[in-house]
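Question thread 4412

I'm putting together a teaching handout and wanted feedback from people who do this every day. The idea is simple: show students a protein as raw sequence, then show them the structure tokens that encode its fold, then repeat with a second protein so they can compare. Below is the first pair exactly as I plan to print it.
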Amino acid sequence: MTARSNGHLVVEALTNLVAAIRANPRLAIGTTMARVTWAGSTQAIARVRQFEPIIVDEPPAFGGTDRGPNPVELLLVALGACQELTLAILAEQLGLQIQAIDVEVQGELDLRGFLGIDPEVRPGFQRLEIAVHIVSPEPEERLRELLALAERLCPVSDMLRHPVPIETTLEVSRSRVVPA
């Protein structure tokens, strides 16, 4: 029996979703959106769907007040959460017994890139490391297969491993317009 999960609901929901998409492939295409509004200084307020706003801030070394995680920390959270949830969902689908999953993500930054000190240094992470710890009675080989499948199917991992086209537009206003 798996802990912290209702595998029946996960498997049933995914089975229904797969059947619906197979019947109508256009259902597979969707758009996700986040809105981020500058709150002054180094703070921003991020909003996703109906959830509580997320305060994004920088540490004092960057002139911030440390009221929330900074953008690169949120990227690490997104990667770790995506890996963990993908592992949990796949384990349910494959009938693997999992008691706990813990994912730690570390990223190495070289601030010379972000600060414009050295144009040869990229401003983003130089490398990422993911440590996955699983508590399970399953054979290690099955868990390694599970991890390999999760790494292949995790959307955030995919976006970091393979460049995603980004299109940026600019709209300039002469007066403050409050988004709805």
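The second pair follows. I'd like the answer to focus on this one:
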Amino acid sequence: MPLIGHVKELWRYPVKSMQGTPLTDCLLTERGVAGDRCWAMRDENRQEVQWGKMYPQLMLCSARYRSEPQPGEVAAVEITFPDGATLGSDDPGLPDKLSTLCGTRATLWPLQAASNREFYKRYKPDPAQWAREISAAFAREPGEPEPDFAQFPEVLVDYVAVPGTFFDNEELHLITTASLAAMRAKNPAARWDIRRFRPNLFIETVPGVDGLVEQNWLQRRLVIGEAELEIAAPTPRCGMTTRPQADLPFDKTVLRTIVREGAQNLGVGAHVKVPSRVRCGDAVLLTD
């Protein structure tokens, strides 16, 4: 198996659409990184779990666990808001703080069982409004193509996530340094910071591996230590890539470049086929 790179960074996002936490090592499970996206904001007016596409204010917050979560456990989190205030998931003032931030009646919810399908249902008062909201989330400009929505799991037509998870589709997301370098070469004025793209694994490719290389890995496997990942699909990018977070400014040219130069895609989604612990610095091998 050829060596294609090493794990440069590992990331976990305790709360869906909030800033994540860099890790030195993590356990990859069949549900992705242990503890990844185990909490989410819910708009109680719409009775719907929400994301940064609809409420980009969430991206101004950061979240971390008080203690390392165990597989299958939803551990308590602490959220730091843009004004510097930090509140725990068990703080009675958290709903009011979230509601003020988002401008709607908001609460924080842990993962619910897959059988609780009502919890995961989309707010769809009529098909036209739903279509407009989905289109707006991808933030295309006139003349730009929209993603082929047929590539997404059918369950996402009626549910905001695969029930039992807070994932839009695949449970793991990967990007390479080669892809970021390719985008940077096309638009050097933009800040191609990895935080814009919210991967779980940021892979530093070996010399000679250039361009949008992970798009060539579809349906192939990566081996990282004892773990094996199956590359499932390219990742079409949405308006979240342009939004401010931490010290990153709003920049719509990031998405324009991806749509034009990457056929709308940057990075890939993957499934964990053989769970194991992985570490920064681990070799990444591509199956033949």
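Top answer:
Good format. For the second protein you could add a caption like this: Residues 178 and 210 are 5 Å apart (CA to CA). The chain has a mean pLDDT of 94.
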